[in-house]
Structures are given as C-alpha cells and as structure tokens.
Write a structure and sequence with these properties.
The complex is a heterodimer of chains A (237) and B (313). Chain A is an alpha/beta fold. Chain A contains 8 helices and 10 strands. The termini of chain A are far apart. Chain B is of the alpha+beta class and 313 residues long. Helices cover 74% and strands 8% of the residues of chain B. Chain B starts with a helix and ends in a 5-residue tail after the last helix. Classes of the chains: A alpha/beta (237), B alpha+beta (313). The interface between A and B is medium-sized, with 30 and 22 residues.
C-alpha cells in the first residue's frame, strides 16, 4: 500500500543537513503503523512526502499504486483526495462550520448534495460530534477540533489515513478517544500511519512501531512498545 | 456537465458566503476601492465637461464668406454645394441679406442709433455663408478654395476668419488640444493608480487568508475550486464599490452643484457635468462595474497564484 525505497530528503535551506536519510518502508494494506521519534527526527517530513507536500531529494515513493516520480502537478489534488490526512494543528477552515469543513472534503471530490447530506452526519456521529454541525471551529475545544479533522479525513473513506501527532495538542483524556477512532477506522479496512510522541499510547496499542532518529530508521518491529529513550541512551554510551 | 454545473454553483455560493463571513475585511477592501473608483469616475466626468467647454468655444469659430449682391440664387446654390463637398468642412449655414440684417439688428439692439442708421438705406449687408471647419488647425483647403479667382469674384470682400483673429484662434486650438490630451492622460493615470491600489488591497486581503488556501490545497482541492470563490468574492467587492462610487459622485454633483459651480470659478460647467452624468448614467455605471469586476477578478487571480503553487524541489 505504501512503499518508500531509499528515500532521502534534504531541505534547500539546510543543504548539509539531511531530514531523511535513505529510508525504506513497506506498509501492507490494512496495516496500522506507528512512527515514533523525537522532535526533528523526520516524522513530519515523512508524512509530507506521502502527501506530496514535499518532494524527495532522491528515492522512490509509491502509494496506492501511484508512482510519485510520474506524478504531474495537476495530478497532485487527485492524489491528496485518495489519502486522508489528520494534522497536528488540525488545519480546519476557520470560516466554515463543522459540517462545511467535513463536507468540503466531499465537495472537492465532486460528491452530490444528497451524498453530502447523508454522509457527513454519519461521520460526525462516528467522531461523537452530533449537535455541533453548525459550530465554527473557534467555538470548539482542542479535542473537538481534532475530531472534526478526523471526520474530514475519513469522510471520503480513504484507503490510507495519515495522522501526524493527532494527539499532540490534546488533553490525555481526549487523546485516547482519538486513538480509538483511528483503531475503529483501521478495523473497517483503512491503512493507518500514525506518528506520535505519546509513550502510553504506543505501549497500549501494541502495533508495528517504526523508530526514526536523525532521519534514519533505527528500528522497525511488530507488536512493539515505546523504546526511543532506551535506544538513544545505548547509542550515546 | 452536471458535475461541472454543480461545482460552479458551489463556487458562486461559497464566494457569497465568504463575502458575508469576512465582512470586516470586505469593508476595508471596499473602502479603498470606492475611493479610487470615485476618483476615476470624477476624472471621466470632468474630462467630458472640459471637452464640452472646448467644443463650445471652437463652435463659435468659423469662416465667413460675403457674397456680392449680384450673385443670383442658382449660383449661390452651386457654391453652397461645392463648399459642402470640401473634405474639411463640418457644416455650413447660409444667411441671405435680410437674415443678416435681422441678425445685425439683434446684435446691436442696445445701440438704437446704429439700427436706425442701417434702416435708412437699402440693406448694405451682404448675404453670408458661415463655414464651420472640422479642424481649426486645418483650414488651408477651405482657404485655397475661397481664393480661386472664380469664387473670389463672387465675394464682396475677402473671407473673414472669425474676424481675422487667426492668431487668437490658433492659440485657443492649441490650448484646447493640450487640454484634451491632458484629460486623456489623467484618466489613464488614474485608472492605472486605481488598478495598483485595488490589486494591493485584494492581495492584502488574500494574504490574510493564505493559510486557508494552503489547507484547501492539502485537502486536494483543485486550483479553480480554491480560486473561484476568491474571484467571486473580489468581484462582489467590485460591484458594491462601483455602485457606491456612482452614488457618491451623484451626490457630489447633484446635491452640491451650486456650491461647486461657485467654487469652480467657471472653469468647470457643473450644470453640464450634471447633465452629462444624467444622460450617461447607465453607461457610467456599466463602466464602473466593469472596472470594479475586472480589477477585482484579475487581482484575486494573481494574488492567489503564489499560494497555489506546488513544491517543485
């Protein structure tokens, strides 16, 4: 479903610093993969490469059968419509209501009004936001905003969902709600790629964990826990 | 086709909704547009008024041909036809002897002695042809026609170029030509300044909402689906501002016309400006609407461009 082959990313503003260094990842359909690593390790860069927000300096990326090397600019919107993305800072449209924010994802895909009317309330129900349809994002709590962002990411029923620290800005009590929603979506058959800092979540989930440090993959284990601190220590000593 | 129409409907609806939801931003942008569009409209009307004043002056300038009493009617008609056929002639007017006399009496109504004196003899005034040239700078052809021996023979006196004030006429025509050019240049300059200011204002408004554009981009919205509502919104700015500018100029000319007439020191014929505004109301409104909409739409198209680019490195 997701294939990265020796992908390297250097940012133009810091040529001698490598954000990602020849990383290779293969994710199967319906898999739930957690990417962990400290701030600046390269997690967000990895997700930005998947959504083609950034272009790799070298290496090959294939997502859902689409080879990014052959992707033209005009095809990028189409690619993004196929991937659901949940951002750490929510990225809700400030001038649209909760309903409109979620509906927007369907509108840009050309869905009919009837389809939107049927689907959006159902998805808002899944993320426990019934009754908030007419609220503006500024009237919502952090947890609610993140749930709107998840509703927007899943409303098109994407085969791949990418979540960049979706619990990063949230209270622990909301954080677990969000993770449960992601698990639910994964059970329905969506491949989930989650990046997080949250040790408790990683340990509880017991999923495949990829650890990135300084742009390199340092471990990739199934049913793993959070062991970033330990590894860092061993390398330093 | 159905899908395209649906998309178009959504773009238009979103444009209107955004206009209402970003009202404070809209007011700020429109305030600037109203001022600049009003200046353009004012300069157009002022230019038209100057032009009118100029043409009033130039219409009073003509070439008079005085005919001998011996010239009979068929000869006169023949001459009139020939003059009319000259390429530089705008119009001609023929006054027979009694008409000239009547005019003379009318012009000198205040001087009874002159009127009585002229009435005591047989009418000494010659029948006259008034020739109004198309271009005051170009009466050479008319002149050379009139001094041909056959034509000159029919005249009681050499033709008069508005009382032989050729030098004065030349100066006036030169001044009016300069004024005309200045007027056109002023309008062009105002339109350019207006365009730059409006472009800048809309660019600022869109800069404020660049995050929104980037989010839409990340969600996979196509370029026209993101840009469309901004173009609609900016066009609404244009429509509202154009309507307001026409209203403001109307107020300026109509309600304050007497004050303006006094302060314009006769340089600007405010009554004509009023009349011009009334007669051309729909045309002026359409002009303002077109300027407003086109500037709004083009500015927002350019301003959104930079936030819609994909990373290429």
């Amino acid at each position: 479903m997701i294939l990265l082959d020796r992908v390297t990313k250097k940012y133009a503003r810091a040529e001698n610093q490598v954000a990602l260094d020849r990383i290779s990842i293969h994710v199967d359909p319906k898999e739930f993969v957690i990417v962990i690593g400290q701030s600046g390790a390269g997690k967000t860069t990895l997700l930005k490469l998947l959504t083609r927000e950034e272009k790799p300096t070298s290496g090959k990326i294939i997502v859902g059968g689409i080879d990014y090397d052959k992707l033209k600019d005009k095809d990028i919107p189409m690619l993004r419509r196929k991937i659901g993305v949940v951002f750490q800072d929510f990225k809700l449209l400030p001038n649209k209501t909760v309903f409109e924010n979620v509906a927007y994802a369907l509108e840009i895909a050309g869905a009919s009004n009837k389809e939107i009317k049927n689907t959006v309330p159902r998805v808002l129900d899944i993320v426990n936001l019934k009754g908030k349809e007419k609220s503006m994002p500024r009237q919502l709590s952090g947890g609610e905003r993140q749930r709107v962002a998840i509703a927007r990411a899943i409303v098109r029923q994407p085969r791949i969902l990418v979540a960049d620290e979706p619990t990063g800005n949230l209270d622990p009590k909301y954080a677990w709600d969000i993770i449960k929603i992601l698990e639910k979506i994964n059970r329905y058959g969506t491949t989930v790629l989650l990046t997080t800092h949250n040790q408790e979540i990683v340990n509880k989930l017991k999923r495949r964990v990829i650890t990135i440090r300084d742009g390199k993959i340092v471990s990739d284990k199934a049913n793993a826990g959070y062991n970033i601190g330990h590894e860092k220590k061993t390398k330093n000593t | 086709m159905k899908r395209k129409l649906r998309t178009l409907r959504r773009i238009i609806r979103t444009g209107f909704v955004n206009f209402l939801r970003n009202f404070s931003l809209a007011v700020a942008a429109m305030a600037v547009m109203v001022v600049t569009l009003s200046i353009v409209l004012f300069s157009v009307i002022t230019n038209a008024t100057f032009k009118n004043t100029i043409s009033q002056i130039t219409n009073k300038i003509d070439v008079s041909v005085f005919l001998k009493d011996s010239v009979n009617q068929p000869q006169t008609n023949q001459l009139l036809t020939e003059i009319k056929a000259l390429p530089d002639v705008k119009s001609i007017q023929y006054l027979n002897k009694s008409q000239v006399l009547a005019q003379y009496e009318q012009q000198n109504a205040g001087n009874q002695e002159l009127v009585t004196a002229i009435g005591e003899t047989a009418n000494p005034l010659p029948a006259t042809i008034l020739i109004r040239p198309k271009n005051l700078n170009n009466i050479g052809n008319i002149k050379s026609f009139l001094i041909q021996p056959t034509i000159a023979n029919m005249q009681s006196a050499p033709p008069s170029y508005s009382g032989k004030q050729e030098v004065a006429i030349n100066r006036i025509t030169h001044a009016t030509n300069v004024l005309r050019e200045v007027g056109v240049v002023a309008i062009v300059v105002f339109v350019v300044i207006c365009a730059l200011i409006i472009f800048n204002t809309i660019q600022m408004a869109i800069f404020n909402r660049r995050d929104e554009i980037q989010i839409m981009r990340l969600l996979g919205a196509s370029t026209h689906y993101i840009r469309g509502p901004f173009i609609i919104e900016s066009s609404i700015y244009g429509v509202v501002s154009a309507a307001l500018s026409v209203l403001i100029i109307n107020l300026v000319f109509v309600t304050t016309s007497s004050t303006l007439q006094a302060s314009a020191l006769g340089l600007l014929d405010i009554n004509y400006a009023n009349q011009y505004f009334d007669n051309h109301f729909w045309r002026l409104l359409a002009m303002q609407l077109i300027i407003g909409i086109v500037l709004g739409a083009v500015s927002s198209t350019i301003a959104t461009h930079r936030y819609l680019k994909f990373k290429t490195k």
